[in-house]
Design a protein that fits this description.
Blueprint lengths: L1 H11 L3 H5 L2 H27 L3 H16 L2 H15 L7 H27 L2 H9 L4 H31 L11 H12 L3 H32 L1
Helix pairs in contact: 3-4, 3-6, 3-8, 4-6, 5-6, 6-8, 7-8, 8-10, 9-10
Protein name: Arginine ABC transporter permease
Keywords: Amino-acid transport, Cell membrane, Membrane, Transmembrane, Transmembrane helix, Transport
Main location: membrane
Length: 224
């Protein structure tokens, strides 16, 4: 059995760099989705804590839908369903993946950011009012910077989650690391070695990101 495993790795050895290079696709999707999710999360969180009932309700409904349905189903609807419904023709799978992951991340980020805003001392709002600073400038220049500082570790965890979840983009033919391992497996009729390469690489990337996330959290604690 061990000899078969070693022989399998020797067989796919020329394709291992091809599999590993797929990590840049995964990280690209996670990074793009994180930026979209952060921007969308801020807008949604402000709608949730605001006094406009219509926006509050829409933001909560958005969050409920995206958090209450599987990400892989959202991705399938975005790539297969919507283009067919609107007769859009071919859709770029990478762009579709970034947009879908970003919209999904915004729902989770909105709750993280909202909790960060609520954690800021209410005295900050009162002090802003006493200084004659209106609500939105106070939120932008005083409250949000403090909230974001407090939630940076949670945001890092969201990025790690996006990196792991990006493996499902292989279902829409994005050539990430998971998809590349499937291609190599089909080429050599060997499934365990290429899948193991992807598993190890995902684990290593998550360990690295977790390490930097831990350092960031400790730095935030010291700065407090």
């Amino acid at each position: 059995m061990l000899n078969d495993l070693i022989g399998g790795f020797k067989t796919i050895a020329p394709s291992i760099p091809y599999i590993i290079n797929g990590i840049w696709v995964s990280l690209g999707i996670a990074l793009g989705a994180s930026i979209l999710g952060f921007v969308g999360g801020i807008l949604l969180s402000l709608c949730k804590i605001g006094n406009i009932k219509v926006l509050n309700g829409l933001a909560r409904a958005y969050t409920s839908v995206f958090r209450g349905t599987p990400l892989i189903l959202q991705l399938a609807i975005a790539y297969f369903g919507i283009p067919q419904l609107f007769q859009m023709g071919d859709v770029n799978p990478f762009t579709c993946a970034v947009l879908t992951f970003g919209l999904n991340s915004a729902a989770y980020m909105s709750e993280i950011i909202r909790s960060g805003i609520n954690a800021v001392d209410k005295g900050q709002f009162e002090a802003s009012e006493a200084l004659g600073i209106s609500y939105w400038p106070a939120m932008k220049d005083i409250i949000l910077p403090q909230a974001i500082k407090n939630i940076l570790p949670a945001m890092m965890n969201e990025f790690i989650t996006l990196t792991k979840d990006s493996a499902i983009v292989s279902t829409i033919s994005v050539t990430d690391m998971m998809r590349r391992s499937q291609i190599v497996a089909a080429q050599y009729y060997l499934y365990f070695p290429p899948m193991l390469v992807s598993l190890v690489m995902y684990y290593v990337i998550v360990l690295i990101l977790t390490y930097f996330g831990g350092r960031l959290e400790r730095r935030m604690r010291r700065s407090d």
